[in-house]
Specification:
Layout: E1 2-6, E2 9-13, H1 15-29, E3 40-41, E4 44-49, E5 52-56, H2 58-68, H3 97-110, H4 118-124, H5 133-148, E6 152-157, E7 164-171, E8 182-189, E9 192-200, H6 208-232, E10 240-244, H7 247-254, H8 271-277, E11 281-285, H9 302-311, E12 314-316
Helix pairs in contact: 2-3, 2-5, 6-7
Length: about 325
């Protein structure tokens, strides 16, 4: 069964009937040309099989590697060194800042199908105004990582459940310049990764619990928006599961008694508690070693990085290095 949502109309049926009805509807309003089954669009490559669809950016990735001149470089196993702290005052200023901005801009577009480099690109994008040699070296490290896995992409299985589940995490005060924390979350529809983010928080958190609670608020807003989206498409997904590895943040969301201890947290963060009480979000504890959002908040060791990447349902197309 296929469901296609167009304005206020919903087209349903099996694969062939739904596509035929959609084409008929579009031909009545526009002059269009049928280009066949989608294979390539704006750098996105679509590969189909009985198991599902894989979306990658292999050609675009190889173009980035070639543009930097790293086609013959030794591949790296992970995109950023552990405990690397980039600042805006260490290292020589780059003479060609436009080259750095162009590279990071292309890497930002690459994160459409490469959540594994999202954290690294988030860090690099914070130095666009005045990049230095250390920032350029870190960006080249990402290129070396891409060299070893240019065809890695996201797998969307053909058999999947319509249940929303999100992992959220925070790296407390990890920015060496502002001491702000980094929020990271990823959202799954069944086993398919459909949304993810790594972003520095707007304010300084006074505790790790506060930082984690802010990440829960960001993930809750994303889940709320997705539930509204599916509701508009007349798809029932039920309550969304939100998994966090901080017990204190979970207690704050569930227990109003903690209000006296959380007055310094802005009111908009308490959207988590409202959604929990309304039954739209179900919070659950997840052990740190099973926290998938870790990959969006910090640079990890190679073995942990590879394990989390595989759990994000990313697939390396056959025939690649």
């Amino acid at each position: 069964m296929v469901l296609i949502y167009v304005d206020d109309m919903v087209i349903t049926g099996n694969d062939a009937d739904a596509i035929h009805n959609l084409k008929k509807l579009l031909h009545q309003q526009f002059h269009i040309k049928d280009l066949g089954i989608l294979k390539y669009f704006l750098g996105l490559e679509v590969a189909r099989s009985k198991t599902g669809i894989v979306i990658s950016q292999r050609k675009y990735t190889l173009e980035i590697i070639d543009d930097v001149g790293y086609s013959g470089a030794q591949p790296s196993k992970f995109p950023m060194e552990m405990n690397l702290k980039l600042t805006n005052h260490e290292g020589d200023i780059l003479h060609d800042a436009a080259r750095y901005r162009r590279l990071v801009g292309r890497l930002i577009y690459l994160t459409i199908t490469r959540p594994d480099i999202t954290y690294s690109v988030n860090i690099l994008s914070q130095f666009m105004h005045a990049p230095r040699k250390t920032h350029w070296d870190a960006a080249l490290r990402v290129i070396k990582y891409l060299k070893g896995s240019p065809s890695l992409g996201l797998l969307f299985p053909s058999n999947n459940s319509l249940t929303l589940k999100a992992y959220c995490d925070a790296n407390w005060a990890n920015c060496p310049m502002t001491r702000r924390s980094t929020t990271g979350y990823c959202v799954f529809l069944g086993s398919s990764l459909i949304s993810w983010k790594a972003k520095k928080q707007k304010t300084v958190s006074r505790s790790s619990s506060e930082a984690e609670y802010r990440s829960m608020a960001a993930a809750t807003c994303e889940l709320t928006w997705l539930r509204f989206l599916f509701n508009d498409m007349q798809v029932s997904v039920g309550p969304a599961m939100l998994l966090c590895d901080n017990q204190a943040a979970l207690h704050i969301a569930a227990n109003p008694v903690y209000h006296e201890r959380t007055k310094h947290i802005e009111l908009d963060c308490h959207v988590v508690r409202e959604k929990v009480q309304a039954g739209q979000i179900i919070t659950k504890f997840v052990p740190s070693h099973l926290q998938l959002a870790d990959i969006f908040t910090k640079a990890l060791a190679v073995n942990i990085f590879k394990e989390l990447t595989s759990k994000l349902n990313m697939l390396q197309l056959e025939g690649e290095c």
